[in-house]
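Late entry, written up from scratch paper. The run itself happened at the end of the previous shift, but nothing got recorded in the book at the time, so transcribing now.
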Amino acid sequence: MSQDPGDRPDIRVRRTRAQLRSALLSLAGERGYQKVTVGDIAEHAMINRATFYRYYEDKDDLAADILVHAARSTGRSSPITGGPLDMTARIASGALLFDHIAQHDRLYRPLLAYPRSRRFLIRARSLLGDLVQERIDAVPKPAERLMPEEMVVTFAAELFLGMAAWWLENGTAHSSRQMSTWFTQFLFFGYFNVLGLDDLLPRPPHRPGP
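Output as recorded:
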């Protein structure tokens, strides 16, 4: 699995992981993901294969790390502060992530679009789930959860992966900002909101005053 050796990765570890991410992005852009081997990645990053396997199980594991690294980087523009959510900032940060996917289409299309890579999806779902959990943990916890956190985390990760796959399969016909807007609306408000059917939702019962 793509875990840093030790609890706190040093500069050398971070540099090596960055070199490996850069190598796969570059090679996939040139040749297509399917034609890139672990040996190619190691050679391009100027490390040996044994070093590669210290950090990643295989190239799918590295690809998942690239996606989550991008999600973490773009998410910094919409931090969770515990106050009201800035939806404009969240849409903008999401658009950057969809931009990343479109820019590296030759990496992500073989992994996300049909037929999908099961190993990649399992790893990406897990890593994205960890990232979602971090953001949930950044806000005060209510006295009682209406839904298990594990279900929320899984849904959020699956929603993003599913939307990204659909986008790639349909030739990225919609803008990255539009995709981010739909993702944000669906994640935070549900599918009736995305479909413009808010008027069909039941209204909360009127609460008489004291």
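The chain has a mean pLDDT of 89.
(Scratch paper discarded after transcription.)
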